[in-house]
């Protein structure tokens, strides 16, 4: 069976206790945490809620910015990343998503050296805490100027260069699933994957593009997941749709759709025939009460 998780970014307006209640109702046992919401509630309370509910954590987002593009110094970004590693370990989270940052006024070569230096400094600590640092690549069209590494291939090469068991990949299907080269490389990438983020789209991604619930776009997500499973990937699929369609369906509607799709993919992964797939239609907007 596939391990399906829901990101807190999807259920942004819900507090963790409400998120957990609805996840359990829809048959999910895993959540992707966002550091901002964790900080608002406090790590002690978050861990208590998770333990009482039996919900585990797929990933914690995020740390990074090692090139100073966000205004922090290299030392400050390292200190924040160490704090994030400690948070992840405290919450029983196996994966910390890393955003490397942009050039930050440096030459490309120097900026990349800073990222490598940061990973070499952090990997031993992460490994000792049982946390994987998952580098997230960005499509140039999605975050122009904000992604130092030039897509999935360059990020995968950096992970391979680091050659440390605590450094892996966080791959976003919404950004790359439309790329035939990406799909062809999945068997090679699978061993390095720490988490796979899933949202549907309508083709080549862009900064203004909407992250759709699965089945409401045109990306070959089922094929991507099937290839990953065949290649031995046993990690989490973290669903993180965001945008107008999520607001129209309501959070409960999105959770229900994701549950049905994940179950269908699980059957396909097990080699069983799925009788019916979720229809590719846009549901009408419910009332405001239904959304909230």
General description of the model:
- It is a single chain.
- The protein has twelve helices and eight strands.
- By secondary structure, the chain is of the alpha/beta class.
- The protein has one domain (3-291): Divalent-metal-dependent TIM barrel enzymes (TIM Barrel), CATH 3.20.20.150.
- The chain has an eight-stranded parallel barrel with strand order 1-2-3-4-5-6-7-8, surrounded by five helices.
- Helix 5 (108-129) links the parallel strand 4 (95-99) and strand 5.
- Helix 1 (16-25) packs parallel to helix 3 and helix 4 packs parallel to helix 5.
- The longest helix has 22 residues, at 108-129.
- It is globular and about 45 Å long.
- The relative contact order is 0.13.
- Residues 272-292 have low confidence and may be disordered.
Report the β-strand fraction as a percent range.
Answer: 15-25%
The succession of helices and strands, N to C, reads EHEHHEHEHEHEHHEHEHHH
Mind telling me which CATH architecture this is? Alpha-Beta Barrel
Helix percent reads 40-55%
Distance between the ends: 30 Å
Q: How many separate domains make up the residues?
A: 1
* Main beta-sheet annotation: 8 strands, parallel, barrel
Shape: globular
Tell me the structural class: alpha/beta
The total strand number stands at 8
Per CATH, the superfamily is: Divalent-metal-dependent TIM barrel enzymes
CATH topology: TIM Barrel
């Amino acid at each position: 069976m596939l391990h399906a998780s829901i990101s807190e970014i999807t259920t942004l307006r819900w507090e963790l206790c409400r998120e957990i209640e609805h996840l359990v109702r829809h048959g999910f046992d895993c959540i992707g945490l966002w550091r901002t919401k964790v900080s608002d509630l406090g790590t002690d309370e978050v861990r208590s809620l998770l333990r009482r509910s039996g919900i585990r954590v797929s990933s914690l987002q995020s740390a990074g910015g090692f090139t100073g593009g966000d205004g922090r110094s290299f030392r400050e970004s390292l200190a924040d990343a160490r704090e994030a590693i400690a948070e992840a370990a405290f919450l029983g989270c196996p994966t910390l998503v890393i955003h490397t940052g942009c050039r930050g006024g440096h030459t490309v070569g120097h900026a990349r050296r800073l990222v490598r230096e940061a990973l070499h400094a952090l990997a031993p600590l992460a490994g000792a805490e049982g946390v994987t640092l998952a580098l997230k690549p960005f499509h140039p069209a999605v975050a122009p100027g904000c992604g130092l590494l030039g897509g999935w291939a360059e990020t995968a090469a950096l992970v391979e260069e680091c050659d440390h068991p605590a450094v892996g990949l966080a791959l976003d299907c919404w950004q790359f699933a439309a790329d035939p080269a990406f799909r062809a490389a999945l068997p090679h990438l699978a061993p390095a994957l720490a988490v796979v983020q899933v949202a549907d789209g309508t083709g080549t991604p862009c900064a203004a593009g909407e992250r759709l619930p699965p089945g409401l776009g045109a990306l070959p997500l089922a094929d991507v997941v099937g290839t990953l499973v065949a290649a031995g990937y046993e990690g989490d699929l973290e669903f993180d749709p965001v945008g107008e369609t999520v607001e129209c369906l309501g959070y409960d509607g999105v959770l229900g759709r994701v549950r049905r799709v994940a179950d269908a993919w699980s059957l396909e992964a097990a080699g069983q025939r799925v009788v019916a797939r979720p229809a590719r239609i846009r549901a009408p907007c419910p009332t405001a009460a239904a959304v909230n």
